[in-house]
């Protein structure tokens, strides 16, 4: 722990008597620790090198708190990316359903209710200038940060594919144009998945919200249901999508489903791009173990693109299924390692 962090804790806790236990982060460059003082525990967040992200973390977190949503409270903050947060424990949604599989659907239904509440309550009053990255999810972001990321970081970077992918890229650029401008935008977390949701006293809480922006309502639902860490059964995903539409009062369910699979395809590609980058560039092998589930999710969403012509994407997805989901079946990609 740095001297700056130690001084911050001494001031925030009004005491020099505390213990600090480092915690392991997933893909983030931020540092986390559990702080114990006077029979209470807190979470220390350190992010000294990204002030714009820190500003978003604070403003969006306070906005969620003021909107009456289940998110950790800020106990104290200081310049240099120091935050003392409410401790929500160690039980992610992923952990909760693995410990008690019988509770899976009930916990996910509660999480869907939290998602709907977030979209309804956090959208009013949310401001573009809270967002350090981009203020909204649009065609450009879907193409550059998800579809092309999948091609560059996963296919070319991680798998070392040397085939001509121009046909696939052309399809994906067209597909990116389908994600925007068809319904009112809502508050979008952008990484609404089981390791960013905590369960404490049977209640689901939202964390890691600093990347929020405006976007289509389908995106966070697709993130939740197409999550490689839990890998929900296809029929459960469809039941939960129906439950979301019932809870939100969706007027055009068929249109919602079409958009869900379009947006979900981009989310699945973004995840595989991130896994390729985090494994191959950041040297974080934890993510490599989830690539097969990520491929399975991509196949689920691509199969739902019933009215979209994308033969190259379908062919690529089938090849990835053979490579990662069928033992002993060689890939047709000529350049795969």
Task: Summarize the helices and strands and which ones pair or pack.
Blueprint: H1 3-13, E1 19-23, E2 31-37, E3 40-46, H2 51-66, E4 74-78, E5 82-86, H3 93-99, H4 104-122, H5 139-158, H6 166-176, E6 186-188, E7 197-200, E8 203-206, E9 213-215, H7 218-225, H8 234-248, H9 253-280, H10 291-303, H11 311-325
Antiparallel strand pairs: 1-2, 2-3, 3-5, 4-5, 6-9, 7-8
Helix pairs in contact: 4-8, 5-6, 5-9, 6-11, 7-9, 9-10, 10-11
Give a verbal description of the structure.
The structure is a single chain. α5 packs across α9 and α6 packs across α11. The chain is of the alpha+beta class and 337 residues long. Mean pLDDT is 94; it is low at 328-337. The longest helix is centred in the C-terminal third of the chain and has 28 residues, at 253-280. It has helices spanning 3-13, 51-66, 93-99, 104-122, 139-158, 166-176, 218-225, 234-248, 253-280, 291-303, 311-325, and strands spanning 19-23, 31-37, 40-46, 74-78, 82-86, 186-188, 197-200, 203-206, 213-215. A 5-stranded antiparallel sheet has the order 1-2-3-5-4, sandwiched between helices. Strands 6-9 form a two-stranded antiparallel ribbon. A two-stranded antiparallel sheet has the order 7-8.
Brief descriptors of the model:
337 residues; two-stranded antiparallel sheet; alpha+beta; globular; 9 strands; five-stranded antiparallel β-sheet
Mean pLDDT: 94
Category from helices, strands and their pairing: alpha+beta
Query: Quaternary arrangement of the chains shown?
Result: single chain
Distance between the termini: 40 Å
